[in-house]
Amino acid sequence: YQKRQVSLAAAKYNPSLSIGFKETWGTQMLNISGETMFNSNVYASIKLPIFHWGARFKSTAAQKAILLGKQYALQDKQDQISKEVAKAWTALTENTRQISIAEENCKLAEENLDLNTFSYTEGKLTILDVLSAQLTWIQAYTNLIQSYYEQKIALADYRKATGIRYLGQK
Questions:
Q1: Beta strands in 11-162 (DSSP E)
Q2: Which residue of 20, 78, 154, 167 has the fewest C-beta atoms within 10 A of its own C-beta?
Q3: Quick check: 159 and 165 in contact, CB under 8 A?
């Protein structure tokens, strides 16, 4: 492909040969007799570009530079896509890890709430300790929901970066 582009740029500087046949109605001189006649011409033309002073080389070099620029732009886009996919994958795995941590924290907060509630009913803790444990559990549960939400966003970003579409799925 590259060679063809460069050769097209240099084509107007190559020698060319034209050969043809032309038929006209009428005469080339004054028509004194009034008769109409066919007049036939055969021609050949050779075109040799001599005085372009390196224009061919400049034209092909310019075409090569344009082609290289396009190749570099394509490679840059490919690198950007690779980086975007890697970033989306990293975010997805990190958010999945955050979910497991949030689930563990939620379990611990629930166990703490159960222990504090039991100790309160036994008369060993005050109501403030139970309320504090409830607040801790609510915060852990909120963090878990937030982690699920962020994972769904990361999954959508990953699907967008990889071009995966899931039509009809929830």
A1: 16-25, 38-47
A2: 167
A3: yes
What is the domain partition of the chain in residue ranges? 76-162
What lies within 8 Å, CB to CB, of 126 at 6+ separation is 120
Q: What tens digit of pLDDT does each residue of 4-39 get?
A: 555 666 667 777 888 988 887 766 666 666 666 677
The CA distance from 129 to 107, in Å, is 18
Residues whose CB falls within 8 Å of the CB of residue 51, separated by 6 or more in sequence, listed in order: none
Least confidently predicted of 24-28, 39-43, 87-91:
24-28
CA separation for the pair 7, 105 (Å, rounded)? 68
End-to-end CA distance of the chain: 45
Q: What is the mean pLDDT of residues 69-90?
A: 93
Place of tokens 């004194």: 32
Q: Which of 2-6, 114-118, 162-166 has the least mean pLDDT?
A: 2-6
Closest CA to 36 of 25, 50, 48, 28: 25
Q: Are 72 and 64 contacting, i.e. CB atoms less than 8 angstroms apart?
A: no
Q: From residue 86, how far is each of 100, 125, 146, 157, 162 by CA, in Å?
A: 22, 50, 23, 11, 10
